[in-house]
Amino acid sequence: MTASTGQAGSPFNPDKHRVGRVLCFAAHPDDIDFGAAGTVAAWTAAGVQVSYCIMTDGEAGGFDPAHRADIIAMRDAEQRRAAKLVGVTDIHYLHQRDGYLEPSHEVMKAVVRLIREVRPDVVLAMHPERNWERIQKSHPDHLAVGEAVTRAVYPALENPFAYPELADAGLEAYKLPWLWLYAGPGERENHFVDVTDHVDAKLAAIHVHVSQHPDVAAMEVTVRQGMQHNAARAGLPEGRSAEAFHVVAVNGPDTIAGF
């Protein structure tokens, strides 16, 4: 996999910690592509199995009134084409209403169900904390994804008595090793992935979401500059590009249940 480099405080060591399966959560089609498609491309190129879960259908997105009648089908098609460009074909939807997403027990139970089905090494999700430097990263649906996934990961996911109907259906409790959060406050980001070799794939995936981009050129400049800024923050050589994450160790060798 493309090299990772962590700031002080990052618990993840790519030379030590194996990643074989990843489950990514997002609020809308295109969120993962903006936030983590370079890292996803690096994972899939290394043989990692990556799945997506999009919580809404993205029906409130876009800028062209002519797309209203077909926007859900359009955005689904865009997401599936974009995902294929970075090696992902397994996509799930929770079909929550765009703009109304909440970290409800309905959503949390669905998250627990899917994580128990997939049993990933890493759950990647949007950050539950607001980014005041660039509030556009902190759409209320984005924050709701982060809160719902974080609540689901502990304790419900690993508690056989939480949502007992899931265990009754054969979905046994599961202790997740890693939670990676994206699109959060810069001060929380403690881990960077060098995605220089996958910048073109990431941008190609973003370009697929044509229903969302009234100014494609400006979007691409912003994305490139953001990745270059992340690389500089990570101490990578000039000319490199990186994606940034807040990595949390959920269960490791030293984890004590309930503490």
From TrEMBL:
It comes from the Bacteria. GO terms for molecular function: hydrolase activity. Its EC number is 3.5.1.-. The keyword Ribonucleoprotein does not apply. InterPro entries: GlcNAc_PI_deacetylase-related, LmbE-like_dom_sf. It is an enzyme of class 3 (hydrolase). Keywords: Hydrolase, Zinc. Signal peptide: none annotated. The keyword Hydrolase applies. This is PIG-L deacetylase family protein. It comes from Arthrobacter sedimenti.
